[in-house]
Amino acid sequence: MKTKFISGAFLLGLVAFTSCGKSESTITQTYNLNAVNLITDVTDGSTFASEGWYYFDLTISDMKGSVAASNLILNNTAVNFTSAVEPYTSTGYDIYFKNLTVPSQNVTDGNFLLSPYFYFPKMYNITSADMYVPQASLVLIANYNVGENYKVKTFQKNTFYVGKTTTQYNMMGVDQTYETEDIYYQLSLDLKESKAQLLMFNAKFSNVEQEPKKAQINLNDLKVEYTDGVIKVYGENIIPEVVEGNATTPNEDFIFNTIEFTTTSEDLTQCEIKYQVAGRFYGSFTGAYADTSYLKK
């Protein structure tokens, strides 16, 4: 996996955090973060998504704070909650509330991670007009229960994935394998229409030198399904738009016979993407939009 990214804006806050030990002053910070709530009814496994907001009021000098949520849609009803002031942990760059409870709204087993370790296009010199630009220096990765029936996990409307792509193909009767970590993927969700767009950057389907990299390929109007806490995006016979300079041109030579994106980790940060292109290239990608591996160490 690529090197972790730490937001410069967040580092400014950490200067205050690391220097407050000998100071009597109180240092506070507030974060308001938008997120997609992926909500699963455990009684039948049905899953749906809605957009909500989370608010973090922190006293950095004491490493304590409160967590609030608004517009959490449960059974067609908007639910709001605010926790008591609780301690959080930090590795020095992140903020992590563990096992949070809000008895008034039956919120239990709440884990709320504010992390600067997420990826976005400019980190990899991608400057397309369609690229994802972060709106904050932190990304929210959270999961919690509401009552006995609902499990909630957070996701983002725009995510940028870094990892490894392996493509299998046959050339002149010989099976070939092309592996690279230079292809990146960006997923954008349209919650109202249950549609998605998947972008590929530096796309290339073989190790043949004569095949140039495609700076950007757009796969539009993909279908979205939410099942048992998993996000699935897919389509068939998708004619990609190939971006070259300021021009975007449909290209049937690289038709995607099938394309499927699936989240693979409990925290929704990791995914697998599989696709078949032009009936002969079989691609498989595994990667993540944020690095949470350090939490397991």
In terms of structural class, how would the helical and strand content be classed? mainly beta
Q: How far from one another are the termini?
A: 16 Å
Largest sheet: 9 strands, antiparallel
Count of helical regions: 1
Mean pLDDT: 90
Strand-and-helix sequence, N→C? Answer: HEEEEEEEEEEEEEEEEEEEE
What's the gyration radius in Å? 21 Å
Number of strands: 20
- Give the proportion of residues in helices: under 10%
Strand content: over 45%
Low-confidence stretches: 7-22
Shape: elongated
What does this structure look like?
The chain has 297 residues and is mainly beta. The chain is 4% helix and 57% strand. The chain is built from one helix and 20 strands. The strands form two sheets. Strands 1, 2, 3, 4, 5, 6, 7, 8 and 9 form a nine-stranded antiparallel β-sheet that branches. An eight-stranded antiparallel beta barrel has the order 10-12-13-14-15-18-19-20. The two termini are 16 Å apart. Residues 7-22 have low confidence and may be disordered.
What would you say about this model in short?
This protein has one helix spanning 8-19, and strands at 28-41, 47-59, 64-74, 77-82, 86-87, 95-102, 107-115, 139-146, 150-155, 158-171, 174-180, 184-190, 195-203, 214-227, 230-238, 241-244, 247-250, 256-263, 270-277, 281-288. It is mainly beta.
How does the SSE layout of this entry go?
Blueprint: H1 8-19, E1 28-41, E2 47-59, E3 64-74, E4 77-82, E5 86-87, E6 95-102, E7 107-115, E8 139-146, E9 150-155, E10 158-171, E11 174-180, E12 184-190, E13 195-203, E14 214-227, E15 230-238, E16 241-244, E17 247-250, E18 256-263, E19 270-277, E20 281-288
Antiparallel strand pairs: 1-2, 1-9, 2-3, 3-4, 3-5, 6-7, 7-8, 8-9, 10-11, 10-12, 10-20, 12-13, 13-14, 14-15, 14-16, 15-18, 16-17, 18-19, 19-20
